[in-house]
Amino acid sequence: MRFQPLVVAIALFVVATTTHGEVYRWVDENGATIYSQTRPTSGVTVEIIKATPTKTSKGEESSPEDRLRQQTEASDEAKEQTESEDLEQEFKAEEARIKKENCKSARHNLKLYQTLGNRIVKHPDGTYKRYSEEERQEKITQAEKQISEFCE
């Protein structure tokens, strides 16, 4: 009972190694060349062709498992590339949206500071401030720089 998994594994290994097997080639009564994995039942002359593993680009023999692994790796790489491109597109779209919002805000600030004059301004923290002409001009210059940076 304890050896049953081992026996099954060995049997599968033996079957798998013999399935690389042979290909039979013969000419039928109509003169057509036939290739088959099973030996013909009639008494025709049969040529046995040994199946050989394919070679990789490096000249090494490649098993079906290796080819499957290589195909899986290539598929995974293509999937990662697609996901990376999708993420990059999302990032660029988000960046463009933020840039557009910043442009809108900078234009609003410029308009506000240009028309402000000598008014008192309430800040987001709830404090009030009256800007001097120097401070107002500085804020206008700052808003113009932001417009040139964010607006295209």
Please, could you describe this protein's structure?
This is DUF4124 domain-containing protein. By secondary structure, the protein is an alpha+beta fold. The protein has a domain at about 20-50. It has three helices and seven strands, in the order αβββββαββα. The strands form three sheets. A three-stranded antiparallel β-sheet has the order 2-1-3, with no helix packed on it. A hairpin with a 5-residue loop joins strand 6 and strand 7 (about 130). Helix 2 (about 65-115) packs antiparallel against helix 3. It is rod-shaped. The termini are far apart.
Can you describe this structure in just a few lines?
The chain has about 150 residues and is an alpha+beta fold.
Low-pLDDT ranges? none
Compressed to H and E, one letter per element, the order equals: HEEEEEHEEH
Give the integer mean of the pLDDT values.
80
Work out the helicity level: 55-70%
Report strand %.
15-25%
End-to-end Cα distance, whole Å, is 78 Å
Number of strands: 7
**Sequence of strands across the biggest β-sheet:** 2-1-3
Task: Describe the main β-sheet briefly.
Answer: 3 strands, antiparallel
Structural class: alpha+beta
Tally of individual helices: 3
Give a topology summary.
Layout: H1 4-18, E1 22-27, E2 33-36, E3 47-50, E4 54-55, E5 61-62, H2 64-116, E6 120-122, E7 128-130, H3 133-150
Antiparallel strand pairs: 1-2, 1-3, 4-5, 6-7
Keywords summarizing the entry:
152 residues, alpha+beta, two-stranded antiparallel sheet, 7 strands, 57% helix, 16% strand, rod-shaped
